[in-house]
Write a structure and sequence with these properties.
Blueprint lengths: L1 H19 L6 H7 L9 H7 L4 H8 L3 H9 L6 H17 L8 H25 L15
Helix pairs in contact: 1-6, 6-7
Length: 144
């Protein structure tokens, strides 16, 4: 469970950083939005707080082996694919939680996998409604 929550906290820290680039949000305000746990806490948060573009975020995250593999899957300047890469990693970790016993992560994983299934269905229905059937597989994250 700790691994799942730490990954979620780190993913949110990266999303806060990327979404606040180019806004009036200061470094101190950005630091206040970060959680106080996770693999990136506290040194990774300090590095993320001073990032001014996506490539600097990538450089800060490549120092951490679990996130290095995520950022290696996407090319430079592709911040839209970052969400899909994070979702795929989350699904992988959630599926691994079913292989352990006697913990509450199974319930958390079940709910989060259902949320991913709903995101997949929403994406597919939007593609069908907009007659973009060729793009259906672009953002679908396969669960099992």
């Amino acid at each position: 469970m700790c691994d799942l929550l730490s990954f979620e906290a780190d993913r949110r820290a990266v999303n806060i950083t990327i979404n606040s680039i180019g806004t009036e949000l200061t470094r101190d305000d950005r630091r206040k939005l970060y959680s106080n746990f996770g693999l990136l806490y506290p040194y990774g948060h300090e590095e993320l707080a001073v990032c001014e573009d996506v490539d600097q975020v990538r450089g800060a995250m490549e120092k951490y082996p679990p996130y290095q593999s995520i950022f290696n899957r996407i090319s430079y300047g592709e911040s839209q694919m970052l969400d899909k890469a994070f979702y795929e990693e989350e699904v992988r970790r959630l599926c691994l939680s079913f292989e352990q016993q006697f913990h509450y992560a199974v319930f958390f994983a079940y709910i989060r996998l259902r949320e991913q299934e709903i995101r997949n269905l929403m994406w597919i229905s939007e593609c069908v409604a907009q007659n973009q059937k060729s793009r259906v597989h672009d953002s679908v994250v396969f669960i099992f």
